[in-house]
């Protein structure tokens, strides 16, 4: 049931603020957002966390690393599941594995789970399907409560994973350093605000994207969202898109910038705003078509998409939304099958 939306993808994009509120309801304990005590205890004596995932869930994992390191002060490594499975790094014995998967059925990740469990490491899965293989086979599991995701391109599961990772990391921090009740509420409002302005993004897309290539650039957490924005655009529009660390543009990819190639910068962090903007200027000098997604407090002059401010660490919940809408409206303009892009399956059950 598309609930009046033309495609599941747009329905699921629109559900994202509700997903955040649902997660808040499910994780609320005494007016605070917390994981269950037994999950917190799993992290006693843990010196390093490994996050494993594929695709969009991997991109959520990269943001999870920032939460664990900045909020919980636990060092983290993030691996693509299919890479970890056969090229294992040197692992500290006091390590715990967090496996992130919307479906809970991704074969690459299951291979990792079997492998690390056999070696005796503790495992925690984060999934959208509590009856899935990864939810059942890990030592413990956290539900993201995003509701069934039907469009092949993942949207609401990604924001759900990020919110649950934030709650997990904050539960492990000594001082519970983030006031997540108010920060996640604020993020949900900011998400709603940009979803309500989706017609504007549709218009922007009609005027900006007439090229077979596109780039997303960003630094730090914005780079991780750039990777996700690029994946979404390429998978549903078939436009070749790369997500690039803004500072790396000059180390190679700049050679590809020519007239009218969109270069979309995500700028949500004040301390790197000027650097990313000067990278964008260089792309503009090569006649690329710059587009800026910023927050109110990082915006300048005439940025194309300005989002309501949210906590610095939670910016991906909001900055990802225009990237999803850009992909959606471009695919719609091209008349391709938005909910079922060619060559892809909703869950990848072979390695
Ligand atoms: C992209 C997408 C895929 C999945 C990946 C992992 O939109 O949906 O990249 O994120 O196949 O799937 P899960 O999260 O089910 O393990």
Automatic annotation (TrEMBL):
Known catalytic reactions: D-fructose 6-phosphate + L-glutamine = D-glucosamine 6-phosphate + L-glutamate
BP GO annotations: fructose 6-phosphate metabolic process; protein N-linked glycosylation; UDP-N-acetylglucosamine metabolic process
Q: Where is the SIS domain?
A: 39-178, 204-341
Q: What class of enzyme is it?
A: transferase
EC number, as in UniProt:
2.6.1.16
**Which compartments does it reside in?**
Cytoplasm
Report the superkingdom from the record: Bacteria
Q: What are the GO cellular component annotations?
A: cytosol
Query: Which keywords does UniProt give here?
Result: Aminotransferase, Cytoplasm, Glutamine amidotransferase, Repeat, Transferase
The molecular function terms of the Gene Ontology recorded here are: carbohydrate derivative binding; glutamine-fructose-6-phosphate transaminase (isomerizing) activity
Name of this protein: Glutamine--fructose-6-phosphate aminotransferase [isomerizing]
Q: Which organism is it from?
A: Hujiaoplasma nucleasis
The organism's taxonomy opens as: Bacteria, Bacillati, Mycoplasmatota, Mollicutes, Candidatus Izemoplasmatales
Gene expressing this chain: glmS
User: What range of the intact protein is shown?
Assistant: 250 to 600 of 600
């Amino acid at each position: 049931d598309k609930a009046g939306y033309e495609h599941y993808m747009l329905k699921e994009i629109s559900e994202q603020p509700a997903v955040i509120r649902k997660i808040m309801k499910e994780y609320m304990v005494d007016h605070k957002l917390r994981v269950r005590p037994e999950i917190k205890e799993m992290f006693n004596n843990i010196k390093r966390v490994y996050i494993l995932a594929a695709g969009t869930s991997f991109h959520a994992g990269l943001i999870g690393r920032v939460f664990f390191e900045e909020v919980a002060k636990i060092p983290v490594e993030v691996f693509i599941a299919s890479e970890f499975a056969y090229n294992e790094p040197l692992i500290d014995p006091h390590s715990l594995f967090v496996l992130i998967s919307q479906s809970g059925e991704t074969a690459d990740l299951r291979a990792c789970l079997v492998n690390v469990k056999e070696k005796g490491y503790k495992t925690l899965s984060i999934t959208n399907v509590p009856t899935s293989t990864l939810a059942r086979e890990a030592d413990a599991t956290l539900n993201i409560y995003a509701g069934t995701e039907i469009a092949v391109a993942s949207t609401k599961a990604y924001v759900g994973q990020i919110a649950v990772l934030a709650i997990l990391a904050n539960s492990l921090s000594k001082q519970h350093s983030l006031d997540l009740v108010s920060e996640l509420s604020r993020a949900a409002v900011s998400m709603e605000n940009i979803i309500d302005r989706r017609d504007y993004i549709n218009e922007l897309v009609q005027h900006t994207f007439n090229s077979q290539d596109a780039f997303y650039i960003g630094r730090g957490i914005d780079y991780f969202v750039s990777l996700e924005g690029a994946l979404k655009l390429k998978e549903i529009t078939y436009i070749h898109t790369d997500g690039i660390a803004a500072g790396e543009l000059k180390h190679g990819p700049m050679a590809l910038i020519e007239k009218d190639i969109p270069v979309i910068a995500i700028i949500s962090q004040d301390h790197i705003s000027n650097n990313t903007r000067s990278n964008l200027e260089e792309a503009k000098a090569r006649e690329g078509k710059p587009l800026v997604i910023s927050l109110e407090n990082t915006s300048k002059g005439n940025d194309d998409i300005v989002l309501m401010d949210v906590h610095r660490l939670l910016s991906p919940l909001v900055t990802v939304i225009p990237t999803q809408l850009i992909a959606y409206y471009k695919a719609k303009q091209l008349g391709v099958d938005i909910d079922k892009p060619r060559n892809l399956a909703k869950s990848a059950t072979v390695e």
